[in-house]
Specification:
The complex is a heterodimer of chains A (375) and B (299). Chain A has 375 residues and is α/β, with parallel strands linked by helices. Chain A contains 16 helices and 7 strands. A 7-stranded mixed sheet of chain A has the order 3-4-5-2-1-7-6. In chain A, strand 4 and strand 5 form a beta hairpin. In chain A, helix 3 packs across helix 4, helix 4 packs across helix 5 and helix 9 packs across helix 12. In chain B, helix 1 crosses helix 2 and helix 7 runs antiparallel to helix 8. The radius of gyration of chain B is 19 Å and the shape is globular. Classes of the chains: A alpha/beta (375), B alpha+beta (299). Chains A and B meet through helix 2, helix 4 and helix 16 of A and strand 6 and helix 8 of B.
Chain lengths: 375, 299
């Protein structure tokens, strides 16, 4: 499997954080650039701090990492603040809420939350109560992001979430889900099972997914649902989750493949284990590799994935002007392969998005030209 | 070796090729641009700055033509940090201001190893004045005037405070002036060197004053702030320096800091120490001569 040369140092820093004092200035230069683009610089800073290595680094590198450390800490404060505000807003409704992804990692104090940069707060709630929940959040200032009517319909009908709700003052965003994959996906995780295995987070009145479901959700998000470009950070999350729960939870590995089967998520799990191992040296128990082997795609598809996946997940060289097009083509292929919606609808949607984006660009250009011509 | 030591052709070639790594105080920016018209102005404005070949680069930035399907975009330019655009495309004639805005943006977004305050900083003798202000307060005009009357320029736009000792690290980049200020400072300081005059920017007419060579030469001399002044230009106002409390100074300065909240408790401590060590004032003025006199009295 070809690894991207441009991300070689970044991968080395991620796989062996205890050895970062060995890098020279030239290597640090590219590591910092690549880590910034992939939202991993704060994590590298945390690992350096935890390993007591900051003193052994070139002073300027230590300074830059300190800045990234602060940024990670601030992000975590923001996530916890928003989570508590959201919990307060929903307290009166008395409906169970499952925190997902970054907010869950932070609220539960999982090690991978340290230095992790989260964007939105993602929650899962019971579908029948969506309208009430939206109303309660809106009452506290989280308003649906202004979309066209078309986009509103896209979100509410074809996706698995309300439109994102953005706070009118703080501009933070809550994504409210009721399943963990789009309704139009070929795969259908079982929401009831997710609820059944969910656990309480101490002291917050909120829940999180069970360990296996958390891992499967992350795998589904990366290998089915999300944007793969530069998504090495999401693979790092997965490897962290595997390592953490593998060590802390009895029976985590034992029942994992069966749990994936229950949710029809074997294929994303297969990819998560495969690329976690190949790119980030994830150690997977033999029995698990054996059990998941049947979830592999057909050999030609797998060969293609092996060839494409590193190039997509890892950043290219930031000075390389030609990489954008190849990446765009690959992403288009992968998206259509993992249908987010029936192919005819996907094509129509993409075409419409392209037209709307071009129209918006033209509007902005005219606006700028008008402004600059004013006396 | 300094930026101005290269021949114009050599500078332009390096700018368009591997890029030129320029050090401004604690930051090294490697600037790449194949736009032929920006090479000479950049070399003019940054001539006194060192080329930093063996240092870690903070910001790898590029100024290039915009790309895209829409044909008109090709008359626009973008500023990128590591291949990510900082802003939407700008008309090509704004390439030079875009470079300056972009470099400021890089520092605002990333330089969290320091407490950054949106402020000018000038020094005379033992007196170092921190001048936090929003755009339109006349901060840059005042700064340019002071700097033309013997004050050292540490920064026109971004005050960089070092944790630990709270000293300000000079950056001493070009001073951006707008509209009437350009002529005003041109008359006030006939020896001042200006970059090209650029019209039709979102802020009106714009030009950059080259920082005095001595300020650039002293960019590795940090300074402890001793005075905080919040300047406001008020037409026809008599110059007035009004003391304010440490607390007021602290809060107003925090408001002008893009990363105060990111540094958390450490940011609080750095800024509190700074406010406690300084005499603080609100300052309104209309005449530059009056302003200079008042500042000189403080020094």
């Amino acid at each position: 499997m070809t690894e991207s040369i441009a991300a070689r140092e970044l991968l080395a820093a991620l796989k062996a954080p205890e050895k970062i004092a060995d890098f020279d200035i030239g290597q640090w230069d590219i590591i910092i650039r690549q880590a910034r683009r992939t939202r991993l610089l704060s994590r590298i800073a945390v690992k350096a701090e935890e390993g007591g290595l900051t003193g052994a680094l070139p002073p300027k590198v230590a300074d830059i990492l300190r800045g990234a450390f602060y940024a990670g800490a601030e992000n975590r404060r923001m996530v916890m603040w928003e989570t508590r505000c959201m919990a307060k807003a929903l307290a009166e409704i008395e409906t169970p809420v499952i925190l997902l992804k970054g907010a869950a990692y932070a609220a539960a104090g999982l090690p991978l939350a340290a230095g992790r940069i989260a964007g939105d707060i993602d929650i899962m709630v019971a579908q029948p109560r969506l309208a009430e929940i939206e109303a309660a959040l809106t009452a506290q200032g989280w308003l649906p992001i202004k979309f066209s009517d078309y986009d509103q319909r896209y979100y509410r009908t074809w996706m698995h979430e309300l439109p994102p709700l953005r706070h009118e003052e703080r501009e933070t965003v809550i994504d409210v889900h009721h399943t963990i994959l789009p309704l139009t996906s070929r795969l259908s995780p079982d929401p009831e099972e997710l609820w059944r295995h969910s656990r309480d987070i101490d002291g917050l009145g909120l829940k999180m997914l069970g360990p296996q479901d958390m891992v499967l959700h992350s795998a589904a998000h990366l290998f089915q649902d999300g944007d793969l470009a530069f998504a090495i950070r999401d693979l790092v999350d997965l490897v962290d989750l595997f390592n953490h729960f593998g060590a802390e939870e009895d029976c985590f590995w034992d029942g994992l493949v069966a749990r994936a089967a229950r949710h029809q998520l074997e294929r994303p799990l297969y990819y998560a284990l495969r690329y976690g191992h190949r790119l980030l040296d994830l150690a997977v128990p033999e029995a698990v590799m054996h059990d998941i082997a049947s979830a592999a795609p057909a050999a030609p598809v797998l060969r293609l994935m092996d060839r494409l996946m590193p190039g997509v997940l890892l950043p290219d060289h930031p000075d390389d002007p030609n990489s954008g097009r190849a990446r765009a083509a690959t992403l288009l292929y992968l998206r259509s392969h993992w249908l987010r919606m029936p192919p005819w609808l996907l094509a129509a949607h993409l075409a419409r998005k392209a037209v709307m984006q071009a129209a918006a660009a033209v509007r902005r250009w005219h606006e700028q030209r008008r402004k600059s011509e004013q006396p | 070796m300094k930026v101005g030591d290269l021949s114009p052709d050599a500078f332009a070639a390096e700018l368009a090729g591997p890029g030129v790594p320029i050090r401004c105080g604690p930051f090294v920016a490697r600037i790449v641009s194949n736009l032929p018209e920006v090479a000479a102005p950049i070399q003019l404005l940054y001539g006194a700055f060192p080329i930093a070949r063996d240092l870690l680069v903070d910001f790898h930035v590029r100024l290039r033509r915009a790309t895209g399907l829409y044909r008109r975009l090709r008359s626009h330019v973008v500023f990128t940090l590591d291949d990510e655009p900082a802003f939407h495309p700008f008309p090509r004639r704004l390439a030079l201001p875009l470079l300056e805005w972009g470099l400021n943006w890089c520092i605002y977004r990333n330089a969290h190893q320091f407490l950054v305050i949106h402020a000018a900083v000038v020094q005379k003798g033992a007196t170092t004045c921190l001048l936090p202000a929003e755009s339109g307060s006349g901060k840059s005009t005042l700064c340019a005037a002071l700097v033309s009357r013997g004050w050292r320029l540490l920064s026109d736009e971004l005050a960089i405070l070092r944790p630990g000792d709270g000293k300000i690290l000079p950056v001493a980049r070009p001073v951006s002036l707008k509209n009437e200020s350009i002529a005003l400072i041109g008359a006030f300081a006939p020896d001042a060197v200006f970059g090209p005059m650029i019209g039709g920017t979102p802020k009106g007419l714009l030009s950059h004053m080259r920082p005095p060579a001595e300020s650039v030469e002293r960019m590795d001399e940090p300074a402890s702030p001793s005075v905080i002044i919040f300047p406001t230009y008020r037409r026809d106002a008599a110059a007035s320096l009004d003391p304010i409390s440490t607390g007021q100074a602290f809060f107003h300065a925090a408001d002008s800091s893009p990363n105060y909240h990111i540094l958390g408790r450490d940011g609080f401590n750095i800024l509190a120490d700074c406010a406690e060590a300084c005499d603080s004032y609100d300052f309104s003025y209309s005449s530059l001569d009056d302003a200079i006199r008042i500042f000189d009295d403080l020094a």
